[in-house]
Amino acid sequence: MSEITPEQVAHLATLARIALTSDEIESLTSELRSIVDDVAKVSEVATPDVPATSHPIPLENVFRDDVPGETLTTEQALAGAPDHDGSRFRVTAILGEEQ
């Protein structure tokens, strides 16, 4: 695998129109080398007989069935409301908008 050089990092930064200091170039060179090394390690074990996966464990739907149940009556729902008009919650206007 070819070595990542500071010149390559500076060239990529120029192509991306990113201004980098020499300290940033050196830091990114080291980070990119590490990334390339890690990808090379993965490539060593990722042979054609190893299937590609997005998760190490198979995922399955864990949602329960959507079964209708008992619901509150209007009176029950409004019982704890600080203010209502008999069929709806009543709230104060917000943002100065009066209705």
At a glance:
With 99 residues, the protein is mostly helical. It has helices at 6-15, 22-45, 74-78.
Q: How would you state the average pLDDT, rounded?
A: 87
Termini separation: 70 Å
Query: What's the main sheet like?
Result: none
- How many E-type strands? 0
**Global outline:** elongated
**String of helices and strands:** HHH
Q: Which residue ranges are poorly predicted, with pLDDT under 50 across at least 5 consecutive positions?
A: none
- Radius of gyration of CA atoms, rounded to a whole number: 31 Å
Number of helices: 3
Q: Helix/strand/pairing class, anyone? A: mainly alpha
Oligomer: single chain
Beta content: under 5%
The percentage helix is 25-40%
Would you write up a description of this structure?
It is built from three helices and no strands. It has 99 residues and is an all-alpha fold. The chain has helices at residues 6-15, 22-45, 74-78.
List strands and helices in order, with pairings.
Blueprint: H1 6-15, H2 22-45, H3 74-78
Helix pairs in contact: 1-2
Give the tags.
99 residues, mainly alpha
